[in-house]
Design the sequence.
């Protein structure tokens, strides 16, 4: 019996030492191309963000569903030459804290406003991609204080859905489905974000596969359906005429995600883009050829040029 107890003690000691030497992987282990800053916000939110460049105008980049601040690298690297560029990981994403939050558009808009106020930002242009575009619109609809312009890149919120379509989308995006998605489908899900996925975007797939091994993955899988529900429960289309800021709308001509191909196969990306653009009084629309949903990465030169021209 003494020998058995001694053996158990040795084994427990071994496993404890192994756990210390090989701690669980985390999204904090991702490599980011910029120094990561942290801002403590109410509600125990630790907000991670990058802050690059300097200038009289500040560009605040808001990523889309399932993305992170790294996805703005091709834009920040150019635009930071003459502008201050801040990109955040929304709560629940990337290196920001994970927690029990609503993860709807109002919550994210409050987070963006808290970042602006906490850093004392002035002359801000919000730049939102996909879900981040809908977050940006909700932010200015709540208050446009210190926000001068708006850039919407393939924004969610321009496409509208019926009650039955909203219910279908919520049934598709469940934590169980997301967690059970096989590697081949994960790769395909990323590839359809592009007209032709470039090799320099493959890190997004690598990071997504790495995420499955992290301690935060279960919570991430639970959060994504909340984000989808938040976009559907807080539509913005009918309120677009309330946006009075100068606005640049950018869409890829070959976007395969907006409009939704399963629900609105007869619609074209330009039709969706036009429907939103026409409801925002001071807006300009740029359609980018040879570009999918991730237009700011796939055709970064065209997007950066349009942004610089708009900011003049």
Sequence:
């Amino acid at each position: 019996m003494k020998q058995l107890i001694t053996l158990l003690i040795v084994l427990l000691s071994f496993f404890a030492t192994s756990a210390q030497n090989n701690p669980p992987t985390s999204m904090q282990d991702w490599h980011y191309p910029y120094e990561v800053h942290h801002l403590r916000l109410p509600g125990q939110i630790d907000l991670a963000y990058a802050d690059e460049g300097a200038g009289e105008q500040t560009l605040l980049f808001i990523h889309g569903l399932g993305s992170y601040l790294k996805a703005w690298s091709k834009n920040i690297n150019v635009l930071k030459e003459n502008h201050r560029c801040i990109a955040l990981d929304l709560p629940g994403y990337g290196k920001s804290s994970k927690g029990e939050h609503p993860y709807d558009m109002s919550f994210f808009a409050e987070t963006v406003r808290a970042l602006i106020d906490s850093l004392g930002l002035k002359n801000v242009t919000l730049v939102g991609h996909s879900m981040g575009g809908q977050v940006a619109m909700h932010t200015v609809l709540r208050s446009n204080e210190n926000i001068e312009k708006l850039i919407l890149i393939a924004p969610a919120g321009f496409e509208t859905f019926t009650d039955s379509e909203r219910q279908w989308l919520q049934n598709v995006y469940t934590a169980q489905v997301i967690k059970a998605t096989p590697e081949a489908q994960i790769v395909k899900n990323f590839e359809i974000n592009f007209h032709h996925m470039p090799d320099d975007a493959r890190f997004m797939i690598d990071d997504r596969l790495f995420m499955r091994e992290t301690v935060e993955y279960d919570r991430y899988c639970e959060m994504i359906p909340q984000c989808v529900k938040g976009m559907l429960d807080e539509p913005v289309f009918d309120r677009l005429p309330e946006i009075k800021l100068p606005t640049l709308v950018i869409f890829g001509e070959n976007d395969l995600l907006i409009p939704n191909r399963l629900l609105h196969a007869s619609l074209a990306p330009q039709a969706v883009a036009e429907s939103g653009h026409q409801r925002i009084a001071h807006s300009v629309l740029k359609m980018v050829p040879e570009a999918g949903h991730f237009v700011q990465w796939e055709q970064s030169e065209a997007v950066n040029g349009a942004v610089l021209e708009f900011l003049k």
